[in-house]
Specification:
Elements: H1 3-27, H2 29-35, H3 38-64, H4 71-97, H5 106-125, H6 132-137, E1 141-142, E2 157-158
Antiparallel strand pairs: 1-2
Helix pairs in contact: 1-3, 3-4, 4-5
Amino acid sequence: MTGINWIRTGAVLGFLAVTIGAFGAHGLKERLDALGTAATFKTGVEYHMFHTIAILCVGLLAIARPPASAMPVNMAGWSFLVGVMLFSGSLYLLGVTGIKILGAITPLGGVAFLIGWVAFAVAAWNSPVDDSAAHRTSHLTTLPHVSNGASHSESGIKREESSH
């Protein structure tokens, strides 16, 4: 999938996380309290949002990487997406229905999250970094011009001087 499509996916997932969270906090409050599953539902929403942000980061990384090396980036995105569906989805269903066996699905989503984080780390580790602009200017420090009568420079750039 392309970087912009991961960003679009993240935007939709973010919308859903906020919607589901608000519905759980307001529309389902009595039911979740009665079943004693409000904390379970909330955990689903939290992991949904955490991994929505991760998918947005996948999109940004995919844009920054050359297409030929997109495999680990896409693996991260798909793993996060599957993780949201299995982990958060199972917690949403468990929270609303109280059917405990649905909790057996949750660890599969957790494994998908872990695979996603490893793939994301590999993708980030192997990403080309262009920090040449930082190296070109690292010897200069831009400061506001402060004069005590003896100015070293009118440009406001402080240069390293020897103390001989």
